Amino acid sequence: MNAQTERFTLNGLAGSIEALRDQPIGASRGVVVIAHPHPLFGGTMDNKVVQTLARAFVQAGWECVRFNFRGVGGSAGAYDEGRGELADLLKVVEQVAPQGPIALAGFPFGAFVTSHAVAALWASGRVEKIVLVGTAASRFSVAAIPQEAHDRTLVVHGEHDDTVPLQSVMDWARPQVLPVTVIPEGEHFFHGKLPLLKGLVVRHLMAAHP
User: Fold this and answer.
1) For 188, left (φ over 0), alpha (ψ -120 to 50), or beta?
2) What pLDDT score does 206 carry?
3) Domains of the chain, start order
4) Less CB within 10 Å around the terminal CB: N or C of the chain?
């Protein structure tokens, strides 16, 4: 992402996990782990939306870690329909943020995996912020967000997303009464809307929560 981006390797249940780390200027507010799009459809930690999320978190004072799911780039293993990918994400959190505040973010398939990571980690009391973008609710069983976590959660979707219809995300969010922020004219990869997406995320990250 920039000259300061650190490339490093973590240990996963399927072998090594390739990762990138960006540090904020000044003291860190915590560590965010960002999950990328579907491994079988070209998703990697270098995806433009994932990079936009990383820039937003760094600007808001968070140490940012992105990683490649198993079977992607330099990460060992093979696609596992979300089960192994969740294990990967939890292993990354365990290694890069063994203590202190954490945030979790993801884009489509990565948002689906992140939702299950939130379910697994919420009871720890460490999850400060959650950002789900283009959540793949039409293709996967996205976990419900704990009621107490709603104030800490930003769900963003493009109005004209032709990969994950907005309606499917509304159908997931409605029973939870979980707000969804819709970007007008936005499509799946938010072409031309990335600055707006970044601004929404930074605003969410800088807002205080109960």
Assistant:
1) alpha
2) 97
3) 6-206 (3.40.50.1820)
4) C
Q: How confident is the model at residue 4 (pLDDT cuts 50, 70, 90)?
A: confident
Residue 56, both tokens: 């937003």
Residue 66: partners with Cβ closer than 8 Å, 6 or more residues away = 19, 20, 33, 34, 36, 45, 50, 54
CA 74 vs CA 16, 78, 87, 180: distances in Å: 8, 12, 17, 34
Query: Which residue, among 129, 66, 64, 60, has the nearest Cα to 101 in the 3D structure?
Result: 129
Full-model pTM: 0.98
DSSP code for 206:
H
DSSP, collapsed to helix, strand or coil, labels residue 112 as: helix
